[in-house]
Amino acid sequence: MELRQLQYALQIASEKNFSRAAEKLHIAQPSLSQQLSKLEKELGVLLFQRNTSSVELTHAGASFVSKASDILDAVELLKQEMADISQVRKGKVIFGSMPITGSHLLPYVLPAFRDHYPDIEITLLEDSSMNLEKLTAIGKTDLSLLSLPLQESSLSYVEIAEEQIDLAVPKEHPLACKWEEYPDLTVDIAELVDESFIVLKKGQGFRKLTFDLCQQAGFEPKVVFESNNMETVKSLVATGMGITLVPRFIARAPRSEFVPVYLPLTAPAPSRTLVIAYRQGRYLSGAAEAFIQTFKDTMQTLLD
C-alpha cells in the first residue's frame, strides 16, 4: 500500500467520479483506475461501487477513507515537524496573555522576537487568567502567559521567571514614612492584618495569590474596593484608599501621576512563577518553541 494510493482513494471519494478525480490529481484516468484496482486487490475488499453515472463508497470503502484521511493528516503533521526541526521559517503563534502583565512584558518580548523571526506572525489574545486557562486547554491559543498554580490539569508549562511580590502603600502611610528613614525595611504580611486592601476582581489569578498569602499569614484581607485593572488598583492605593500587593515587574513600570510607595516584604519574600502554558500533548511548532525561548531570554535580561 502506498501513500499516493490513499490520496487517490480520498480524491475519488470526494469527487464521486473517476474523470474528475483524475483531473484533480493530474494523472490519466486509466492510471487512476489501475491504481485503485491494485489497492483493492491488495486489501481483498471492494472500496467503491461503480455504476454508469457515479462512484459510491462501499461499507469497507467508508471505513478505509476515514482511516486514510487520518493517516495522511499525520503524515502532513510529521512533515511540518521535520521542517521545523531543520529550520524555523514562516509560521504563526496564537499567544494568550493576562492584560496587565502582558502590557509590561510584551513591549520587550515582541520586538526582540520580531528582530530574530520577522516572518513569524504573532496573534495576541488578552483575557483573564481563568479564561486563558480554559482557552488554552481547548486549543484556542498555542501558548499563554500565566502564573502558577494552574487550575486546568490538562495544561503543561515552561517556567519563564520567578517574580517577587511587593507591598504598595500610599506615600503618607506610616510604613512609607518608616521606609524613608530605614531603607532596608521589609514588611511581614502578618503586620497588614488591620489594613484595608484594594484587590483585583474574581477571575484574576493575582487576586487568589493575594488572598492565599494573607491567609497563610493568619488573616483574611479586609477588601474595601475591587477592580479589573491593576493600574486602577495602584492609582487608588496612591490616593490613600488602601494598600495592595503588586508583582515587581508591574511595580517597576514607568511612573504616572498617581504612584504608591513600593515596599519589599520580609524574607522569604513571596513571589509568583510566570509560565508559558500549552495543552498537554499539543505539538509545539518551531515558531512556538522559538517564541518561548525568546520570552525566557528577554525575562532573564530584565531580571539581571
Automatic annotation (TrEMBL):
PROSITE patterns: HTH_LYSR (PS50931). InterPro entries: LysR_HTH_N, LysR_subst-bd, WH-like_DNA-bd_sf, WH_DNA-bd_sf. Keywords: DNA-binding, Transcription, Transcription regulation. It comes from the Bacteria. Residues 1-58 form the HTH lysR-type domain. GO terms for cellular component: protein-DNA complex. The keyword Chaperone does not apply. SUPFAM superfamilies: Periplasmic binding protein-like II, Winged helix' DNA-binding domain. Belongs to the LysR transcriptional regulatory family. This is LysR family transcriptional regulator. It comes from Paenibacillus urinalis.
